[in-house]
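Quick question, first post here. What does this chain look like in 3D?
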Amino acid sequence: MKPITAFQASDGTLFSSAEAAEKHEMMLSKENVVDEFLDSELNPYTGHAHRSMARNTIVNWELWKSKNEILSK
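> Answer (accepted):
Ran it through. Tokens below.
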């Protein structure tokens, strides 16, 4: 048997890296507002693949802002 290191998100999901767990946590915290935007008329990316890329970009942006202490006004 081999011990492993894992990171558990607040919803119980396990990740092999802290970065992946952190991204997942950000998605959990922003999921509702991101989906509201993606469902709005302001989102030009309505295809399934484009929607997924837009979601990932938004979550990464929010994570970057929090790591760089950029606060919304």
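Residues 23 and 65 are 12 Å apart (CA to CA).
The longest strand covers residues 7-8.
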